[in-house]
């Protein structure tokens, strides 16, 4: 079996995969690959698949599969997998770090001090205790965020098209009902035709004024021009995101220069522990295939 590692994984992964055959990271050898391992950077689209006539398996190390043309892959008899269980804690911890950073003005405090300013009176903080967190999507990552929010004394509400029973979460019937109550919103939906542009001007108008939004799901769930306008008007009090329409985003992307925004460069799944878990799941997936 010939295995192409197309993106960045834990350095121990090639050694773990050696039992299955030849492992390489030279993308010029795509045409030889029977298995390709990707994360977010590589797009397993029709063009890539057509360049890999021997391809049998695509494994995406991560949660979503929106960078894989699954329908075309399946039409070619190619198996498609991801590793959703591995990344839950890593992404949830970053989402919660952003949730804490927004009301505590952490970035503003650091930046102002680096600029020689002392804004002790100007930087007013608010607490998470007693506030309502609304989860849009409550799968594995959403449930991990809920557990942390409950430990901070937050009330946790959630809306999902597939309701999930979880002790820390109260399910809400309807997205509009959720956003009307939430002081904070955390997005945990996959990118699908129904979720693309989900957070738009119409939905934002139904939110509490000053709501703060954390997005560790997908950039396209947000209508960026609508969100920028809401940040400028104060309807949305803050936005923290780790996800972008491309890695890196275009310099003209509207939210890069909007007020009250905290940004990280798509590092949600990039913990050393998570990369090890992803590798373990890849080994497990390949062990179960008769290739």
Task: Spell out the blueprint of helices and strands.
Elements: E1 2-5, H1 13-17, E2 22-24, E3 35-38, H2 46-50, E4 57-60, H3 70-75, E5 79-82, H4 88-104, H5 106-114, E6 132-136, H6 140-151, E7 155-159, E8 170-171, H7 175-181, E9 184-187, H8 201-205, E10 211-215, H9 224-233, E11 236-241, E12 261-263, H10 272-287
Parallel strand pairs: 1-2, 1-3, 3-4, 4-5, 6-7, 6-9, 7-8, 9-10, 10-11, 11-12
Helix pairs in contact: 4-6
Class derived from helix and strand content: alpha/beta
What form results from the Cα inertia axes? elongated
> Secondary-structure element sequence?
EHEEHEHEHHEHEEHEHEHEEH
Assembly state of the chains shown: single chain
**Intertermini distance:** 8 Å
The helicity comes to: 25-40%
Low-confidence stretches: none
3D architecture notes:
The strands form 2 sheets. Strands 8-7-6-9-10-11-12 form a 7-stranded parallel β-sheet, with helices on both faces. Strands 2-1-3-4-5 form a 5-stranded parallel β-sheet. It has helices at 13-17, 46-50, 70-75, 88-104, 106-114, 140-151, 175-181, 201-205, 224-233, 272-287, and strands at 2-5, 22-24, 35-38, 57-60, 79-82, 132-136, 155-159, 170-171, 184-187, 211-215, 236-241, 261-263. Helix 4 packs across helix 6 (140-151). The chain has 291 residues and is α/β, with parallel strands linked by helices.
């Amino acid at each position: 079996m010939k295995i192409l590692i197309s993106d960045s994984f834990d350095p121990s992964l090639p050694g773990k995969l050696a039992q299955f055959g030849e492992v390489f990271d030279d993308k010029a050898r795509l045409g030889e690959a029977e298995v390709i391992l990707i994360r977010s950077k590589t797009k397993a689209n029709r063009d890539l698949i057509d360049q890999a006539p021997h391809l049998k398996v695509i494994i995406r190390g991560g949660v979503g599969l929106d960078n894989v043309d699954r329908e075309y892959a399946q039409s070619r008899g190619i198996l498609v997998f991801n590793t959703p269980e591995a990344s839950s804690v890593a992404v949830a911890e970053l989402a919660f770090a952003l949730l804490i950073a927004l009301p505590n003005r952490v970035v503003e405090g650091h930046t102002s001090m680096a600029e020689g300013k002392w804004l002790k009176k100007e930087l007013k903080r608010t607490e998470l205790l007693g506030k309502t967190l609304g989860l849009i999507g409550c799968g594995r990552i959403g449930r991990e965020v809920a557990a942390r929010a409950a430990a901070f004394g937050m009330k946790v509400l959630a809306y999902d098209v597939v309701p999930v029973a979880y002790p820390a979460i109260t399910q809400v019937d309807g997205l509009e009902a959720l956003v009307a109550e939430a002081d904070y919103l955390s997005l945990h939906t996959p990118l699908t035709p129904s979720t693309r542009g989900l957070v738009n001007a119409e939905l934002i108008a139904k939110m509490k004024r000053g709501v703060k939004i954390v997005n560790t799901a997908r950039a396209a769930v947000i209508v960026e021009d609508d969100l920028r306008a809401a940040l400028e008007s104060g309807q949305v009090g803050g936005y923290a995101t780790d996800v972008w329409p491309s890695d890196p985003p275009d310099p003209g992307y509207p939210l890069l220069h909007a007020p009250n925004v905290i940004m990280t460069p798509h590092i949600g799944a990039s913990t050393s522990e998570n990369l090890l878990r992803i590798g373990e799941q890849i080994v497990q997936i390949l062990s179960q295939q008769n290739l």
